[in-house]
Amino acid sequence: MSYYSDIRTVLDADVGTRLQVEVDVVGGVLIYCDPETYPTSFPAQAGFGVAVGLHPRRVARFNSELYRRLKHLLRNERVVALGELGLDRTEPSETRGLQEEVLTRISPCQPVILHIRDEEDRQSVVLYLECLELMKTNAARTQKVVLHCFIGAQEVVVSWCKAFPNCYFSYSGQARHFTESQKQAVRRVPANRLLIETVSPYFRPAGARMCTPSFLGEVANVIASYRDSEVRDVCQLTFRNSTQLFGL
């Protein structure tokens, strides 16, 4: 979930379409990865936490002052994760070195949420593995990691689980358009490492007025179909995983 001044208002909003799977959203993580929108206050609602980071599209802003500001925010008890950080090859090539510097310089002491997006490879396989090698230089094997908006193949799941046993794979509405290879990866993710997300307000579903966390049930429905599971089971499983991961 991205920044909202009033979580309840967003959760109750009319999304403009009928949901196939209605869920009661009782928690989540609000992500602030643009210095322009870093939080000055934190959600009062129980079950909701905050992540702060520096999106790879914003790495040009990185300097010692921003680094100190970010470290200060990470000390707040309502901040439950570092992120997003990562690698985005759709950005100009001259930013790539800085993306890698940010990723390796900010030492994670909380779960770290990673954004990984290649320009050409729809599954970003090579970039996931490049990011894995960078993370190995800066994080303990016990580090908790979330691969946000995960679109990778089985080999990526296996490699990350081997290097970081506490690696979680978070699926969004993009899963509706997965190839067979990506569906196989969904099935390969360990049950206790599966997460779902909506990336709201982004990734607005077709026919909807807006994207909100209300669409979590739709994502769960897609993932359940790939894993030959019940939607209710996926919802309960990912709820349990997220509360344990983020301490919500």
Keywords:
single chain; 248 residues; TIM Barrel; 8 helices; 15% strand; Metal_Hydrolase; TatD-like; metal ion binding; hydrolase activity, acting on ester bonds
Tell me what the CATH architecture is.
Alpha-Beta Barrel
Which shape, going by the Cα principal axes? globular
How many DSSP H or I helices? 8
- H/E series: HEEHEHEHEHEHEHH
**Annotated CATH topology:** TIM Barrel
Oligomeric description of these chains: single chain
Structural class: alpha/beta
β-strand amount: 5-15%
Number of strands: 7
Strand order of the largest sheet: 1-2-3-4-5-6-7
What share of the residues lie within helices?
25-40%
CATH class: Alpha Beta
How far apart the termini lie comes to 15 Å
Q: For the record, what is the CATH homologous superfamily label?
A: Metal-dependent hydrolases
Radius of gyration: 17 Å
Low-confidence sequence ranges: none
Number of self-contained structural domains: 1
Family: Belongs to the metallo-dependent hydrolases superfamily. TatD-type hydrolase family.
Keywords: Metal-binding
GO molecular function: hydrolase activity, acting on ester bonds; metal ion binding
Pfam families: TatD_DNase (PF01026)
Notes on the protein architecture:
- The longest helix is centred in the C-terminal third of the chain and has 16 residues.
- The relative contact order is 0.15.
- The chain has a single domain, classed as Metal-dependent hydrolases (TIM Barrel).
- α4 runs parallel beside α5, α5 runs parallel beside α6 and α7 packs across α8.
- 34% of the residues lie in helices and 15% in strands.
- The model has no long low-confidence stretch (mean pLDDT 92).
- It has eight helices and seven strands.
- With 248 residues, the protein is of the alpha/beta class.
- One of its GO terms (molecular function) is metal ion binding.
- InterPro entries: Metal_Hydrolase (IPR032466), TatD-like (IPR001130).
- Belongs to the metallo-dependent hydrolases superfamily. TatD-type hydrolase family.
- Keywords: Metal-binding.
